[in-house]
Design a protein that fits this description.
Length: about 180
């Protein structure tokens, strides 16, 4: 598996992976499936850093990019600006999603490692997120790559009419570790 920065040509596959995450109800409060146009707006806008993981064993999309792509995208991680206020400059909020068929093979770890490096290169000094307390796979991954659990937001939001708790995670990056 390889990683690279994503671009607008990845909008369709990133959208499909994200929609699986929405449907699974384990990683996001979002309930409305997204379209590729929603994801295309991320590039250069709301999400200044998006990385993808490609698996050469999962198919070949090389023709779509003149041979620069090494396989089918099976995971992505994205970082967006945490808050617009100047005091939060350098802090990014992140998310990571893996296609159902590729879960448990290390793609999430690769996506997060690539995201950490890309976010540091983009000038971010800290990554933060919230993870459902039941999402033990994501929490284990994040612990293993240096994220610390800051606390728990109780009843942070409702998903399908049920209040959900979220673990707050953070990691300093870019020489600030």
């Amino acid at each position: 598996m390889t990683t690279r920065l994503a671009d607008s040509a990845d909008a369709d596959v990133v959208c499909a992976i994200y929609n699986e995450g929405i449907a699974d109800r384990i990683a996001t409060f979002e309930t409305r499936p997204r379209g590729p146009e929603d994801i295309a707006a991320w590039f250069g806008g709301r999400h200044p850093v998006v990385v993808v993981v490609e698996d050469p064993e999962a198919g070949d999309d090389a023709e779509a990019d003149g041979g620069a792509r090494s396989g089918r995208v099976i995971a992505f991680a994205a970082a967006s600006l945490y808050r617009p206020r100047d005091c939060y400059a350098g802090i990014a909020e992140f998310s990571v999603y893996v296609a159902r068929a590729a879960r448990g093979r290390g793609a999430g770890r690769l996506a997060m490692e690539a995201l950490i490096a890309a976010a540091a290169a983009a000038g971010f000094t800290k990554l933060v997120s919230r993870v459902f307390v039941e999402n033990t796979a994501s929490l284990g991954l994040l612990r293993s790559i240096g994220f610390r659990e800051v606390g728990v937001y109780e009843k942070h939001g409702q998903l399908d009419g049920v209040w959900r708790d979220c673990v707050i995670v953070e990691r300093l990056i870019g020489g600030e570790e």
